[in-house]
Amino acid sequence: ELAAYSDSALETYKKLSNGKYSDGAALYVIESTLSKMTNRSERAKKSKETYGALLERFPASALRDKMLLGLGSALWELREVAAPAVENKTGKKKTDQKALKQDSGAVKPYVSALECFDELIIAYPGSPFVEEAYAKKIDALAYLKLNEAYYKAINGYMGAFPRGRYIARIKYLLGKYKEDAGDFNSATAVFS
Fold this sequence. Notes:
- By secondary structure, the protein is mainly α.
- It has helices at residues 2-15, 22-35, 40-57, 64-77, 97-103, 113-123, 130-144, 147-160, 167-180, 184-191; strands spanning 86-87, 93-94.
- Strands 1-2 form a two-stranded antiparallel ribbon.
- The longest helix has 18 residues, at 40-57.
């Protein structure tokens, strides 16, 4: 029943795609529809589909930062965190997005949560969604066990948001990182 409702919202979105504020109207309809879905997995799949379509349809939208966070969050929920390695024409595997797009024109604009979070953080530093993107990026890097990038992202968050809403959790993660690295003095200083 909710899937049918979601599909009808997609049809409404398609009808709204030509007006002056069509990006905002479409985003509102989609977010309203997604909020009514109770199955997390289905909601994440629909979010991936709809936010991806919005980003393709409205590449210069003033709401692009919110769309990137929505798509990145959906990809993170689905654990589509890093770009997949694919073989290029020379037989070598690549994970670089620009190289992937050049080698196979069929790659979607955003195929990983990290790619969405990075673009949001870099391209929209004044966005109200940057802090959440940083926090989710840190979680994604921890999931991938990319320690150097993880540590760099933690420090980036702490520098950008010294009084942020996730600062207590980020400081805890920094302390755990230092503790796991055997740097007990630094870990103690972070925890105290």
